[in-house]
Design brief:
The complex is a heterodimer. The termini of chain A are far apart. Chain A is built from no helices and eleven strands. Chain B is built from no helices and twelve strands. In chain B, strands 2, 5, 6, 10, 11 and 12 form a six-stranded mixed sheet that branches. Chain B has a four-stranded antiparallel sheet with strand order 3-9-8-7, with no helix packed on it. Classes of the chains: A mainly beta, B mainly beta. Chains A and B meet through strand 4, strand 5 and strand 9 of A and strand 5, strand 6, strand 10 and strand 11 of B.
């Protein structure tokens, strides 16, 4: 099994719908991240969490929210999806010192 | 603000030729430095990383990278490219507090026979 698992892997949703992307990890890491990847823009940080009680906004948090349900679970929600949120979304984890980021396989989200 | 620059959006090389992908960063101190590779439809896999010490680091799949403090660069190299190296390559920096990882915009590598 993968260390960082994202569900679903692919999703098509309609404008205005609420959608949740889920991430779970078996690395035992406290730190978890959600990134968005767009062609030519690389990966941009949406939210990150240092532990269950600590949530921080990244550079592009508008239109998104997150929930850290447990050390191993970190979900990303789009309250009202819009077409420009069509992208590839990655969850990642790291240890306390940030010696490496471990990535999930990604969720390809299409908003129509 | 921290930034990572990968000046080459796309590179095409012949199989067997050497490869160098450029990366420059902007940060007040020496951050942790990483190169990741993303194959089509896949997540990001770590190729190599630099924290301190020897400025030439070896990674997986025959890749290496050299840290040059004076140039704020961390360029990725491979002596002989294989067709399977075709992928997207990302340079990243990380604060040693583990707060965030900052990624470049990526370099897409095409390998021609």
């Amino acid at each position: 099994d993968a260390d960082v698992t994202q569900t679903p892997r692919n999703r098509i949703t309609k404008t205005g719908k609420r959608i949740m992307l889920e991430c779970s990890q078996t690395k035992g890491h406290d730190r978890m991240y959600w990134y968005r990847q767009d062609p030519g823009l690389g990966l941009r940080l949406i939210y990150y969490s240092f532990d269950v009680k600590d949530i921080n906004k990244g550079e592009i948090s508008d239109g998104y929210s997150v929930s850290r349900q447990a050390q191993a679970k970190f979900s990303l929600s789009l309250e009202s999806a819009i077409p420009n949120q069509t992208a590839l979304y990655f969850c990642a984890t790291s240890d306390l010192k940030g010696t490496e980021a471990f990535f999930g396989q990604g969720t390809r989200l299409t908003v129509v | 603000a921290q930034s990572v620059t990968q000046p080459d959006i796309h590179i095409t090389v012949s199989e067997g030729a050497s490869l160098e992908l450029r990366c420059n960063y902007s940060y007040g101190a020496t951050p942790y430095l990483f190169w990741y590779v993303q194959s089509p439809g896949q997540g990001l896999q770590l190729l190599l990383k630099y924290f301190s010490g020897d400025t030439l680091v070896q990674g997986i799949k025959g890749f290496e990278a050299e840290f040059k403090r004076s140039q704020s660069s961390f360029n990725l190299r491979k002596p002989s490219v294989h067709w399977s190296d075709a992928a997207e390559y990302f340079c990243a920096v990380g604060l040693n507090t583990g707060n965030q990882f900052y990624f470049g915009t990526g370099t897409s590598l095409t390998v021609i026979p």
